[in-house]
Amino acid sequence: MKAMIITGFGGPEVFQQREIEKPTPEATEVLVRVYATSINPVDYKIRQSGEWAGVKPPAVIGYDVSGVVEAIGAGVKDFKVGDEVYYTPDIPGRIGSYAEYHVVDEAIVARKPKNISHVEAASIPLAGGTAWDALITRAHLRVGETVLIHGGTGGVGSLAVQIAKAAGAYVFTTCSGKNVDFARQLGADRVIDYNTENFVDVVASETAGEGVDVVFDNVGGDVIANSIAVTKKYGRMVSIVNIEGNTWPAHLKNIDFHYLFLERHRYKLDFLRTLIEREQIKPVIDSVMSLEEVASAHQRLENGGVRGKIVLKIHE
Amino acid sequence: MKAMIITGFGGPEVFQQREIEKPTPEATEVLVRVYATSINPVDYKIRQSGEWAGVKPPAVIGYDVSGVVEAIGAGVKDFKVGDEVYYTPDIPGRIGSYAEYHVVDEAIVARKPKNISHVEAASIPLAGGTAWDALITRAHLRVGETVLIHGGTGGVGSLAVQIAKAAGAYVFTTCSGKNVDFARQLGADRVIDYNTENFVDVVASETAGEGVDVVFDNVGGDVIANSIAVTKKYGRMVSIVNIEGNTWPAHLKNIDFHYLFLERHRYKLDFLRTLIEREQIKPVIDSVMSLEEVASAHQRLENGGVRGKIVLKIHE
Questions:
Q1: Hey, are the CB atoms on A256 and B256 less than 8 Å from each other?
Q2: In the sheet that A146-150 helps form, which strands lie side by side, from edge to edge?
Q3: What pairing do the DSSP bridges indicate for beta strands B101-105 and B29-38?
Q4: Distance separating alpha carbons of residues A219 and B78, to the nearest angstrom
Q5: Interface pTM (ipTM) of the complex?
Q6: CA–CA dist B296, B292 (Å, integer)
Q7: B295–chain A nearest CA distance, Å
Q8: Among candidates A165, A157, A84, A133, which has minimal Cα distance to A236?
Q9: At a CB cut-off of 8 Å and minimum separation 6, what does A100 contact?
Q10: Which of A52, A250, A259 is closest, CB to CB, to B259?
């Protein structure tokens, strides 16, 4: 089968197309014909230097799949050949998703939402699972609360804004000027252009100095440290990125800080499927490319400014 | 009445003895004759540079009281003249506790444990409330869990070790060599001398690589960052001190981080009284000094190595 492998750690040039053996499913695994996969920031972080993730080149990376079950192991209970599925492969896992076929333990596989295409479904598992875990599993965001989502138009952010709205929260989000209208379309109540407005001033003034219940950071740097001033006492902050700066003020407000890295479980994908089928959230596709274009896709994501997800279409 | 005031921010030499007016209680306040107060690290941090805490010299600082109600405001419901009470004054509050009398809102005052002296009771409110909040309110430490307490023989740590044992947890604690036996007497299951043992190696090896459920840091610096390696996935870390170093590994383990600064509430003191009266925890008194010796008491605490609390005895 065709796969795009990384030959070592480095820039996008480490990708090479290879013919590799089609994997066979072990007892509790399913073999999935990959119709589409998508690109996440963790992909290029691993491509750059993936020792921390346990990846050893040459390797197939890639952590989103929408596809169809083509074969099942002897112990598989929940799926049969022909089922449409979506999921995010484990990191490092046996193999990544930049390939025509993928094998995976059925425990982390879910049924694909019926009302969307494979291209759309491939945009959801890793980013959506992360947004779900951040706001719901970890921060316990509730109806009536207020949330500040940093980076609300990227892969994770665009789903986080929609999930927060679906949960009944008031949503502040930051983005660059050209994405302000787009962020509003996603449902954000107050969009802050970080090039022309200071989010601390905006949130302080528009919450009458009270601040928000929850902060979710997809941006990094000093964003979390700067957000403490506009987080309520006993508020919750969630980060999926590195943080810098002085966090001492968080002590004075008794803030809970949740460090997040997605763990794979089917139930999260089942929740997301429900939200998608009820049209409470929608996939956000920046662009569709081919498997062979994965190096360009990485470059595009690293350059920044992507709205939602870049998807690689592998089979029609 | 006699009080020790800080004349400005700086070293212990900023203390001066003064005669100031005995305060009168407002509607919901009680006037307390202070039998004893105690010294906490926050005291010398405020004495050094207390702008962050809202303190404006000249000021009476001090944040622990054990004493007797001498007068009550018209709206006071829960106390009468003659009641023995203990509590930790708010920061900055109307006045601190380095004085012969103190006024305080009854909402944060509790009845003193019956089976201990005023000197012993004065050692409990701030340090005990902090240890209680860290392990119970925030980290939800449960029977059967394992906890690592950094600095287990200091003011907060010596109570934290006892509370963790009382809660049914297995307790690792770090301290300097001369305090190892003392930490064992407090109930710690495995005492780590940080001068001769590496706590990461000890905890990893003695938990079969699993790590602990909860880490509580009273030390600061890179202690939290270094403890991530021996914290379980979805573990909880609580800090009352500044943290430094790389916290990215906490993402990979989905760790919850609780920043803590004590909020004053009566219910915490009621819990602590119950534990003391049932002899599940005991006050730990390093030394007893007089109010006039407060500068020396600060110096002693700043020098380090104090076991439990330094108490100032004000009235017999």
A1: yes
A2: A190-193, A170-175, A146-150, A212-217, A231-239, A256-259, B256-259, B231-239, B212-217, B146-150, B170-175, B190-193
A3: antiparallel
A4: 50
A5: 0.87
A6: 9
A7: 26
A8: A133
A9: A1, A2, A3, A22, A33, A34, A291, A314, A315
A10: A250
Q: Which residues of chain B have pLDDT under 50?
A: none
CA distance B49 to A108: 53
Task: Specify the DSSP class assigned to residue B22.
Answer: P
Q: Match 């990376």 to its residue by tokens.
A: A61
Q: Mark residue B189 as left, alpha or beta (left: phi above 0; alpha: psi -120 to 50; beta: remaining).
A: alpha
Closest Cα of chain A to B178: distance in Å? 31
Tokens at residue A235, please? 């508020």
Instruction: Please give the backbone phi and psi of residue A199, each rounded to the nearest 5 degrees, phi first.
Output: -65, -30
Whether the link from the prior residue into B92 is cis, omega within 30° of 0, is: yes
pLDDT at site A183: 98
What is the per-residue DSSP string for A69-112? EEEE-TT--S--TT-EEEE---SS-SS-SSBSEEEEEGGG-EEP
Element (H, E) at A213: strand A212-217
Q: Which residues of B touch A214 (CB under 8 A)?
A: none
| CA–CA gap between residue A158 and residue A213 (Å, rounded) | 19
Q: Which residues pair with A92 in a beta bridge?
A: none
- Tens of pLDDT along B241-286? 999 999 999 999 999 999 999 999 999 999 999 999 999 999 999 9
Tell me if residue B222 falls in helix, strand or coil: coil
CB A207 within 8 A of CB A189: no
Neighboring chain A residues of B140 at a CB cutoff of 8 Å: none
**Which domains, and CATH codes, for chain A?**
2-124+283-313 (3.90.180.10), 127-259 (3.40.50.720)
Q: Within 13 A of B89's CA, how many CA atoms are on the CB side?
A: 32
Q: Nearest-CA neighbor of A296 among A97, A12, A64?
A: A12
Residue indicated by tokens 């869990």: B145
- For residue A265, the chain B residues in CB contact (below 8 A) are none
First to last CA, chain B: 16
